[in-house]
Each structure stands twice: as C-alpha cells, then as structure tokens.
Amino acid sequence: MANARFVASLAIAQALVCGGALGAAEANATGTGSTDRITVRLAASRYNSGESGVAVLVPAGSETMMTIQISGVPDYTSRPIHLTAEVFGGACGSRSQEAIYAPSGPSLAHSLIRPAAIGALRGPSRIAHRLPVPFEELRTTPFAISVRLRPADGNVEIFCGDRAT
User: Fold this and answer.
1) Entry pTM
2) pLDDT in tens, 112-142
3) Nearest-angstrom CA–CA distance, 155 and 92
4) How far apart are CA 27 and CA 133, in angstroms?
C-alpha cells in the first residue's frame, strides 16, 4: 500500500517539484539519464518502516536546491510536520560525524495530496532546502542524505540514502 501511495505521489510531484525532475527518479537512481540533477532513493529507518522517499538535487545558481519527497512519517510525529535533511560525507552506513551541508533548521513539510496544505497532515509530503554548495561539487562527491524529525519529536533519523559517484 505504501508503494502505491508513493507512486501516486510521484505523479503529483512531477507537476509540482523541480519542473518534473521527480519523474526521472528511476532513470537517475541507476546513474543514467540527465546530468542536470541527482536523484537519491531514501530508505526508511526502523522508526519509519514501510515508508519510502526520494531526494532530487538540481542546480540553483551558485547553490544546490534539494527537494525531498516522502510517503509518510511515524504516527507519533507532531503536526505540523517539520523535518531536517542534511548531507553527510560517505555513505549511510559509514558517514562523517558532522553534516557537510545542513540547513539552518527544520523545514515545514507540504502535503502532496493537498499542495496548498502546509504542515502535511498525513500522506506524502515534501520539503525543500537550499544547500550552500555548487551542484557540480556534489556531482563528483559521494554523500549520504539523512532526513530527521525535529528535536521535539525525538530527533530520530527516518530516512537515509546514498549517492555514490
């Protein structure tokens, strides 16, 4: 059921996020396809089992725009949902201790079922962060993306995904 929700949310997100970049998630997950975006599949942690996610990174001038779409969060997550996505050197299983690129704080999740809904009451949602790094630098660097709940919800990692070069 979670996969069906995720596939449906990808179709919706294609029209809403990154000018359709999520529609190419499958091609880029294997390293093929366009070079103007990086797509990273996000695996759910034990705190969020059964859910799925994807991160798409695209050039944004001298920075990189990272948009993350997830199928859901743990039931105990307070509403409105705030998530933090950080980029670490290495891979999920063996990454740097400190994030190499991190936003200044959690982002408010937006519902993909009702795009105007802020706080993502339930179902698929997305967040977006600008990373202070040129896109070209990320294209040549292995990294891991970690998605966490805000500290008030336990600050636990609910997704992680690797980008190998």
Assistant:
1) 0.76
2) 776 555 555 567 899 998 999 999 999 988 9
3) 17
4) 24
Q: Where are the domains of the chain?
A: 2-163
Task: Please state which CATH class domain 2-163 belongs to.
Answer: mainly beta
CA-to-CA distance for 52 and 153, rounded, in angstroms?
19
What are 29's two structure tokens? 């997950």
Owner of token pair 């999920």 = 92
